[in-house]
């Protein structure tokens, strides 16, 4: 995606989340992420998925899109006084995990963790997410060993369907 739009702030994104979350949750879907990028041709990207971890179908995205669009049009003051593009899609199978809600959703799923610097000679690790806290992430690796990794050393966590 492009650069973040300086006209959109985190408070505005929170207002959008508050308006669209009930619409999404009513359909047993979940809001995975929301972002707004681009200056010349801005795009509001809303990533949604099924709450039950089964893959979301394109028709489910198509069915919810008009309701989200209508909710966006009713927000006052309008966070988008100029033209923007609305992109509603799935976060994909190798999605980035950014929040504790997403970590809770990903427990028992295969993940890949990238570090700022090497830990035990490795820049990243893969395994099944077992648990997490404010200070650590617990994985079971391919050798069935349980390892804890400090969250403050982690740059990125993503689902990993290759495990």
TrEMBL record:
<dbReference type="InterPro" id="IPR003728">
    <property type="entry name" value="Ribosome_maturation_RimP"/>
</dbReference>
<dbReference type="GO" id="GO:0005829">
    <property type="term" value="C:cytosol"/>
</dbReference>
<comment type="similarity">
    <text>Belongs to the RimP family.</text>
</comment>
<dbReference type="InterPro" id="IPR028998">
    <property type="entry name" value="RimP_C"/>
</dbReference>
<dbReference type="GO" id="GO:0006412">
    <property type="term" value="P:translation"/>
</dbReference>
<feature type="domain" description="Ribosome maturation factor RimP N-terminal">
    <location>
        <begin position="20"/>
        <end position="94"/>
    </location>
</feature>
<keyword id="KW-0690">Ribosome biogenesis</keyword>
<protein>
    <recommendedName>
        <fullName>Ribosome maturation factor RimP</fullName>
    </recommendedName>
</protein>
<dbReference type="GO" id="GO:0000028">
    <property type="term" value="P:ribosomal small subunit assembly"/>
</dbReference>
<dbReference type="Pfam" id="PF02576">
    <property type="entry name" value="RimP_N"/>
</dbReference>
<keyword id="KW-0963">Cytoplasm</keyword>
<dbReference type="InterPro" id="IPR036847">
    <property type="entry name" value="RimP_C_sf"/>
</dbReference>
<dbReference type="InterPro" id="IPR035956">
    <property type="entry name" value="RimP_N_sf"/>
</dbReference>
<comment type="function">
    <text>Required for maturation of 30S ribosomal subunits.</text>
</comment>
<dbReference type="InterPro" id="IPR028989">
    <property type="entry name" value="RimP_N"/>
</dbReference>
């Amino acid at each position: 995606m492009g650069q973040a739009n300086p006209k959109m702030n985190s408070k505005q994104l929170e207002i959008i989340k508050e308006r669209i979350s009930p619409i999404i949750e009513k359909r047993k879907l979940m809001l995975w992420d929301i972002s707004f990028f681009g200056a010349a041709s801005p795009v509001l990207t809303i990533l949604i998925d099924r709450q039950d971890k089964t893959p979301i179908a394109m028709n489910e995205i198509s069915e919810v899109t008009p309701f989200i669009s209508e909710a966006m049009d009713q927000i006052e003051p309008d966070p988008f006084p100029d033209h923007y593009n609305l992109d509603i899609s799935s976060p994909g199978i190798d999605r980035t995990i950014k929040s504790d809600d997403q970590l809770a959703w990903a427990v028992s799923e295969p993940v890949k963790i990238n570090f700022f610097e090497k830990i035990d000679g490795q820049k990243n690790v893969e395994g099944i997410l077992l648990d997490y806290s404010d200070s650590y992430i617990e994985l079971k690796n391919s050798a069935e060993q349980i390892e804890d990794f400090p969250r403050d050393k982690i740059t990125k966590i993503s689902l990993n369907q290759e495990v």
